[in-house]
Amino acid sequence: MKQVPFHPEELDLFFKQLWKKSLNPFWICKPIADDFEMILANPAALALDPRQKPGTKFSELVASGKYPDGILDGYHKCLADKMPLEFEQTPVINGKEYLFRTFLVPIVDAEDKVTHIWGTSHNLTDFIDPQRELLMINQYLDAKVQERTAQLNDAMRRLEKLTITDELTQLANRRYFDDALKREIGRAKRNNQPLALIYFDIDYFKTFNDTYGHTAGDKCLRRVAQVLSRHAQRAADVVARYGGEEFVMLLPNLTCKQALQVAERVRTAVTDLAIPNADTVAGIVTISAGVAVIKESSASADTLLKLADNALYQSKSKGRNCSLIAD
Fold it and tell me: What sequence ranges are listed for the domain GGDEF (predicted)?
């Protein structure tokens, strides 16, 4: 017969009932400096010892003389080994000595750090497999922790991506590029390798927007961005939207000749899109490029950007739809 799984609401209700109505004491504590602090105890635990309230230190409980010496050793061993631990204790409560088998389970976070310890004690006269009961709780909690951790990590990744991605083109944004440029400048200096930067600008884009509308302009930007992405395939290559219709491509360890070849391939691929633009000589959308490469150990990010910008200005001055290397 196929087993029907519990719904999350049913599981929550189950463990709430287990916590409140179980005849066995359950508690949660957390490690503090050379001690442990009570976080929560169920009604069965409080019935045995009302002092087990949130904030109570275990050393205070032991100091009362109602608990055997060395009981804290079990908690320290559980904390150190990060493994479930079982031991016996004989507390004296209200003048009566009890013989309990205590079972501790460490709760370990994603960084392999014990944040809490779950505990339960069973009267040995009514001993009914305490491991199964507590391990079931621990497995459920562990699954919930893993689920919530995965959800949090996914949300953090999506948030991080939003902060470094241009929403329209899905390329890296200027913030990410600026950080990458500083990083690659440092790497180029350490490895004594060249670093190439290509500055692209869509020709007559403002008039394109005026003529064809902003919706067509956004579509044009996305298509040009796709072309750029296809020509920056190495792991260290970075392509980003730098401004409105401006794009940058960072290419580590490329010579001037190699970088110019990349720029020309991009320029040609953009013309191959054949996006109509009546304001250009070719009658289609074109792109201009300025190429700069630094080799000197004293070069800075500002130097490389200025060189590429000057080369782009020269390509614009010479009629656009061309790629030039910085002088």
Answer: 193-327
